[in-house]
Amino acid sequence: MSRILIVEDEAIIRSALKRLLERHDYEVSEAGSAEEAGKLELAGFDLIISDLRLPGEPGTQLIEAAAPAPVLIMTSYASMRSAVDSLKQGAVDYVAKPFDHAELLETVSRILHQQSMQRSPPPDVTDDGGGRQTMIGNCTAMQLVYSRIRKTAPADVTVLILGESGTGKELVARALHQQSKRAQASLICVNCAAIPETLIESELFGHEKGAFTGASAARTGLVEAADGGTLFLDEIGELPLDAQARLLRVLQEGEIRKIGSVETRHVDVRLIAATHRDLRALSKSGDFRLDLYYRLNVMQIELPPLREREDDVLEIADILLDKACQRHERPGLRLSRAARQELRDYPWPGNVRELENALERGVILAEGHLIHPDDLGLAPVAHRPGPTASPAPPPSSADASQPGGEEDDLSLEDYFQHFVLEHQDQMSETELAQKLGISRKNLWERRQRLGIPRKKTARRPQ
Ligand SMILES: Nc1ncnc2c1ncn2[C@@H]1O[C@H](COP(=O)(O)OP(=O)(O)OP(=O)(O)O)[C@@H](O)[C@H]1O
């Protein structure tokens, strides 16, 4: 939903315009003067509509301050000359008052469309080891993502990144941090699903010595470690309710309190959160606090699944293949025509991460200078899983016994799926992982890959 700011001192015009835009599904904020508008994160808006004549500074004052957000100037017929001057100063367009509703809506939609079509180059991202990579892909949906990153990074606001597992949510979080004014400070990345529920609060918020059995020394939490910088909470939908309450306090008051402490400490942290789950639906079932959802959902960036990214699959495959060839010292390896077709047709439930893994397998297994479909190890058509967001049906025993190289994998996954579904109501995630002989992180990753929803945790008081 596009965000528009109206800057107009006449309350009647301002609220009429607000109602008009809201009826057309825009999210609208208001300010009565350029000075009042200047207190907002202007660059976070998709469009600013400002009256030219305002008490104090004129509307054109906002043009530079709001960049790259466009400013549309409203002016009266009597001052057409100043309207033209505003264009010279960089306003995107002007509308003469009183304006025709249809005409104004058309102008707004044209400007927003042009803005979204402005090509933003994919951002460069540096990983923890200092390695650089560029986000790959040029489809329309990714252009929108790049443009959102460019606009949102400098505005010091909370960002919620949505997308299936492996679509690049962490890459986006890194790009946001690295293009923000906090770039020189720390970026702390935490996967909420990979930390046992019993430990997550103390990991995030720290604890005092003796706060609980085993707390033999005081410990600083990750939120405090991100002070002055950015905290990236991946899979925030998995955060237990008690930790959600503490996080809300950080967002509302800018304060944390360690477990077992009575003192609070001020922290200045920009929060970026990501999830593949529908937080609104989770809040309806009582598993996610609605107030926290509203606090997180200031700006949204939605990553498209790979299967919807047009020709990006092959572009990404070519670049990642070169990298895999270098890593394994197998220069010059290419994908066969059939392998390229296979990559194009496959539904990629694990998205770019799954593509990376398939290419890695291809490079290791290829015998000549071409990678063939078998080398990629993708599931045969009959066994192809659905997207991670919706649970995949368990493969039938008939499927599992079919001839082909996948039987062992399938029956193992079949066993895994049945075991988890059968025992998850009685066992904690840690117990499940122990019984299966895998780590808790691995359990979570398999749940993502196989599309097995996590059991509902018992509702706790808020
Ligand atoms: N657009 C892209 N260009 C290049 N590499 C990408 C892109 N998107 C994702 N990747 C790669 O895919 C892998 C998964 O990306 P990332 O960890 O950011 O995904 P995610 O959505 O955070 O996944 P999860 O939710 O499972 O943690 C990484 O190795 C990342 O470098």
From TrEMBL:
InterPro entries: AAA+_ATPase, AAA_lid_NorR, CheY-like_superfamily, P-loop_NTPase, Sig_transdc_resp-reg_receiver, Sigma_54_int, Sigma_54_int_dom_ATP-bd_1, Sigma_54_int_dom_ATP-bd_2. Residues 135-364 form the Sigma-54 factor interaction domain. The keyword Acyltransferase does not apply. The modification 4-aspartylphosphate is found at residue 51. Residues 3-112 form the Response regulatory domain. Residues 376-409 are annotated as: Disordered. CDD domains: AAA (cd00009), REC (cd00156). Keywords: ATP-binding, DNA-binding, Nucleotide-binding, Phosphoprotein, Transcription, Transcription regulation. It comes from the Bacteria. PANTHER family: PTS-DEPENDENT DIHYDROXYACETONE KINASE OPERON REGULATORY PROTEIN-RELATED, TRANSCRIPTIONAL REGULATORY PROTEIN. This is Sigma-54 dependent transcriptional regulator.
